[in-house]
């Protein structure tokens, strides 16, 4: 499989595709950006975010940054134009933003971005959603995640890939005590049952990038936590 994926990557590079990333300052987004640059799969990489990011490594020198006001995204439609592939790793928490703020970011901003991306020519939209997403749920988080998945599906992208990772394992910069505690408790679970409820952010990022080069006959693809692990580990040799 490693040979196949390498061949697919080589072929993909010849297509000169461009991509944008939403949420590149976040835990998954920043790792995804590193992987995107290392992979050299795209001839143009644009970050769309609410603030300009600073990078020291020369690897980032050709990255384009579009700083937008997410409450007035229509005014920034041009930022989304001319990208073949979109990666969305946007998100906040109810604890940080309150109920309304959470819905605004995780539903309104995501959907509006997807609409502008579609209008701007994006053919493959990748959404980082979450394990348990369910538009019929009575709980806010899974309901909003499920609702936004469904609303983006209605935009009818040529290809739409939904990733539903479990608890993200990372060394989070922002203080989220409950999440920190959950991660600590889940360390032994992650060791014993790595694909059950946790996933390292690097695996999510690699999964998105491996998937992008894999041909798909499905217009809509949905990857649960185990599937994200499998995709992210494609072509990697397992340690004995
Ligand atoms: N935490 C978990 O264990 C977990 C599990 C499964 C799925 N997920 C989902 O996976 C996705 C990525 O999660 P993550 O933990 O990697 O992300 P994260 O570290 O929380 O980063 C979120 C990104 O969204 C941006 N953002 C947040 N609020 C914003 C606002 N009001 N306006 C504009 N941009 C805003 C942030 O920009 P700034 O840097 O400017 O704030 C950042 O780039 C989210 O949708 C999350 O719900 C999380």
Describe, in plain words, how this protein is organized in 3D:
The protein has 240 residues and is α/β, with parallel strands linked by helices. The protein has one domain (2-232): NAD(P)-binding Rossmann-like Domain (Rossmann fold). Helices cover 45% and strands 18% of the residues. It has eight helices and nine strands. The strands form two sheets. It has a seven-stranded parallel β-sheet, with helices on both faces. Strands 7-8 form a two-stranded parallel sheet. α7 crosses α8. The radius of gyration is 17 Å and the shape is globular. The two termini are 18 Å apart. 35% of the residues are buried. The mean pLDDT is 94. Bound molecules: NADP nicotinamide-adenine-dinucleotide phosphate. The site of NADP nicotinamide-adenine-dinucleotide phosphate has 23 residues, from α2, α4 and β7.
Can you tag this structure with a few keywords?
9 strands; 45% helix; 8 helices; alpha/beta; single chain; 18% strand; binds NADP nicotinamide-adenine-dinucleotide phosphate; two-stranded parallel ribbon; 240 residues; seven-stranded parallel sheet; Rossmann fold; globular
CATH topology: Rossmann fold
Please tell me the CATH architecture by its name: 3-Layer(aba) Sandwich
- Count of domains: 1
CATH superfamily: NAD(P)-binding Rossmann-like Domain
Structural class: alpha/beta
Beta-strand percentage?
A: 15-25%
Ions and ligands:
NADP nicotinamide-adenine-dinucleotide phosphate
Low-confidence stretches: none
Distance between the termini: 18 Å
Shape: globular
Can you give the mean pLDDT? 94
Q: Which H/E pattern describes the elements?
A: HEHEEHEHEHEEHEHEH
Strand order of the largest sheet: 3-2-1-4-5-6-9
**What's the helix count?**
8
Helix amount, in percent? 40-55%
In total, how many beta strands? 9
């Amino acid at each position: 499989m490693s040979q196949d994926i390498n061949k697919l990557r080589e072929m993909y590079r010849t297509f000169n595709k461009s991509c944008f990333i939403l949420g590149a300052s976040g835990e998954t987004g920043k790792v995804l950006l590193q992987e995107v640059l290392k992979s050299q799969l795209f001839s143009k990489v644009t970050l769309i975010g609410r603030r300009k990011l600073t990078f020291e490594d020369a690897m980032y020198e050709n990255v384009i940054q579009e700083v937008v006001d997410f409450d007035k995204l229509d005014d920034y439609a041009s930022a989304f134009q001319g990208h073949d592939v979109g990666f969305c790793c946007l998100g906040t928490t109810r604890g940080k933003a309150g109920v309304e703020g959470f819905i605004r970011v995780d539903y309104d901003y995501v959907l509006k971005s997807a609409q502008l991306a579609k209008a701007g020519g994006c053919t493959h939209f990748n959404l980082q959603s979450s394990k348990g997403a369910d538009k019929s749920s009575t709980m806010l988080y899974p309901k909003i995640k499920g609702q936004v998945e469904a609303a983006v599906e209605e935009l009818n992208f040529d290809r739409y890939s939904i990733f539903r990772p479990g608890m993200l394992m990372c060394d989070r910069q922002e203080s989220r005590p409950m999440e920190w505690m959950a991660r600590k408790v889940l360390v032994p679970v992650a060791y014993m049952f790595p694909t059950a409820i946790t996933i390292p952010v690097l695996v999510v990022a690699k999964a998105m990038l491996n998937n992008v080069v894999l041909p798909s006959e499905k217009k809509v693809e949905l990857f649960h936590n185990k599937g994200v692990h499998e995709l992210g580990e494609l072509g990697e040799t397992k340690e004995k």
